[in-house]
């Protein structure tokens, strides 16, 4: 939270980037990274460069339109690189940039912790629902 | 990703929890944790127990309804504990559970990395927009 805002930001020049402030552009990037599809797309690309349809299969449930929007937002933020190969038929690969890799690693740490903790989460849900007579 | 599904899950009993599978309950918990307000709420509670209105001020831009829904989802997942004090007027505190703390720490690692990386993100956006003649 130490870096001052310096370029094209909506926050004041004196303020550090702060996701808690609604006008801070870091909140938008956090949403790209952790949004419904952004996190899974970064996670999938952490496994290696992928073509669009490969990503669509890996990110189970995403529509073509949403994956396309997600990739554009991540590319604009400098986290994903789009590489069009001059082949016939043309081939487009998506891969993480170095910063995208660092973001994906931190996100995957969180994801793996949640996956490992799911038995505890499911037990908590059951207790919560039973206390409210939902069962 | 090692723990087998064991309780009330929609995935098969033989499969590990996997956020990439759309039916896996871990994907829902990931969304509670990283959703538009869930992440900021966990981050705010990492600073200490808070009352509802304190949280509402800290999570700049959240509505009363959305904060209430967010807290219920996190409480049901066992990440937030709701403590009603028997005072007059009644007072309700929200605080992280031990697992909620561990989740919040991993999430804050990601958030701080993004905040520190924002100059790079803003530069990438400028390059992207200029290449597309948007300026």
By secondary-structure content and strand pairing, the structural class of chain A works out as mainly alpha
* Total of helices of chain A: 5
Identify the overall geometry of chain A.
globular
Q: Provide the residue-averaged pLDDT of chain A.
A: 88
CATH topology of chain A: Arc Repressor Mutant, subunit A
The major sheet of chain A is characterized as:
3 strands, antiparallel
What labels describe this entry?
homodimer; 135 residues; mainly alpha; Arc Repressor Mutant, subunit A; globular; transcription regulation (chains A, B); WH-like_DNA-bd_sf (chains A, B); WH_DNA-bd_sf (chains A, B); transcription (chains A, B); HTH_HxlR (chains A, B)
Walk me through the topology.
Two copies of one chain form a homodimer.
Chain A: H1 25-34, H2 38-45, E1 50-51, H3 52-58, H4 64-76, E2 80-85, E3 91-96, H5 98-131
Antiparallel strand pairs in A: 1-3, 2-3
Helix pairs in contact in A: 1-2, 2-5
Describe the structure.
Chains A, B: Keywords: DNA-binding, Transcription, Transcription regulation. Chains A, B: This is Transcriptional regulator. Chains A, B: It holds the Pfam family HxlR. Two copies of one chain form a homodimer. Chain A has 135 residues and is mainly alpha-helical. Chain A has one domain: Orthogonal Bundle (Arc Repressor Mutant, subunit A). Chain A has five helices and three strands, in the order ααβααββα. Chain A has a three-stranded antiparallel β-sheet. In chain A, β2 and β3 form a beta hairpin. In chain A, α2 crosses α5. The radius of gyration of chain A is 19 Å and the shape is globular. The interface between A and B is large, with 63 and 63 residues.
């Amino acid at each position: 939270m130490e870096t001052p805002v310096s370029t094209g930001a909506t926050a004041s020049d004196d303020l550090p980037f702060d996701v808690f402030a609604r006008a801070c552009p870091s909140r938008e990037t956090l949403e790209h990274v952790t949004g419904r599809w952004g996190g899974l797309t970064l996670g999938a690309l952490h496994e290696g460069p992928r073509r669009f349809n490969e990503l669509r299969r890996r990110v189970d449930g995403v529509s073509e339109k949403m994956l396309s929007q997600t990739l554009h937002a991540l590319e604009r933020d400098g986290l994903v690189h789009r590489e069009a190969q001059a082949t016939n038929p043309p081939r487009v690969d998506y891969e993480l940039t170095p910063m995208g890799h660092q973001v994906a690693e931190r996100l995957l740490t969180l994801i793996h912790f949640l996956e490992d903790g799911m038995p505890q989460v499911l037990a908590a849900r059951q207790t919560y629902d039973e206390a409210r007579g939902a069962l």
